[in-house]
Every structure is written in C-alpha cells, then in structure tokens.
Write a structure and sequence with these properties.
Elements: E1 3-13, E2 20-25, E3 28-41, E4 60-67, E5 72-78, E6 86-92
Antiparallel strand pairs: 1-2, 1-6, 2-3, 3-4, 4-5, 5-6
C-alpha cells in the first residue's frame, strides 16, 4: 500500500550526479541502495494553456528508490530555483509508487 507523504526532506546526493545516496525523514536516516526508476518532469502540470510559458514548467527529477531497510520511496529534486533547490518525499511504499 502506498502512503502519500509530500514533505520536504534533506538529501545527501552523489557529487557527480543528482542521484540521492541517503535522506533524512522525520528524524530517521535512510540509505539508498538502489534507484529503481528515474525520470525528468519538465511539463506544465495543471497550468492553464494560456499561461504555459517556459518559466512555468516543472523542473523536477523524480526517483523511486529502495532503502537499506527494504522500503521503497518516491522523491523528487526540484531545481526550478537554482540558488535554493529542494527535495520532496512524495510517497512511501509500493513498487514504482
């Protein structure tokens, strides 16, 4: 069963790529042992067609990861604000949730 979370998290990422190595959620550290899926979302989401300009696009890189405890999480790296990019934990549980 998938649990929707939608919370900002702290992530340690690989120096050579944006792939997550570990993340801290609700005071617990999770170590990523496998990236199951990865994709980029550069779409407009629910933005009305008349407002669709390049700066309204999503700038997110999604990951579905398995942790050392066997849990599966979906998270994304939002790089729309280059000076202050953020990570968000979307959901917990379910293969490719």
């Amino acid at each position: 069963m998938t649990e929707f979370v939608s919370e900002k998290i702290d992530v340690e990422k690989d120096k050579a790529s944006p792939r997550p190595l570990s993340f801290k959620w609700r005071g617990q550290l999770y170590t990523v042992v496998e990236v199951l899926e990865e994709w980029v979302d550069a779409g407009f989401g629910a933005t009305p067609p008349a407002s669709r300009v390049w700066y309204n696009r999503h700038h997110r890189r999604y990951y579905v990861v398995r942790t050392s405890s066997g849990d599966i999480f979906k998270l994304y790296f939002d790089y729309a604000n280059r000076k202050s990019p953020t990570w968000c934990l979307v959901s917990r549980g379910g293969e490719g949730s």
